[in-house]
Amino acid sequence: MPHYTLLLDAEANGEAQTIECSAANPWLALEKSRKAIGRHAVELREGERSFGTFKPCFPQDRVWEISPSRSRVPTA
């Protein structure tokens, strides 16, 4: 099963929090980590590959706001 890292925006103390998650696909990794993410924006990564920045939309709580313009894929 693929392993994903979720990078949460830095808190007031300036330190970013990471969440490690294994899931069948990137979207399930977001859903599995929803409680830990809370209202934070989070960057979803698989190794060096970034899937972009996501933020839970409230009050729906089931829809993710996606910022693909911030996504990046490393080049060789």
UniProtKB/TrEMBL annotation:
It comes from the Bacteria. This is Uncharacterized protein. The lineage of its organism: Bacteria, Pseudomonadati, Pseudomonadota, Alphaproteobacteria, Sphingomonadales.
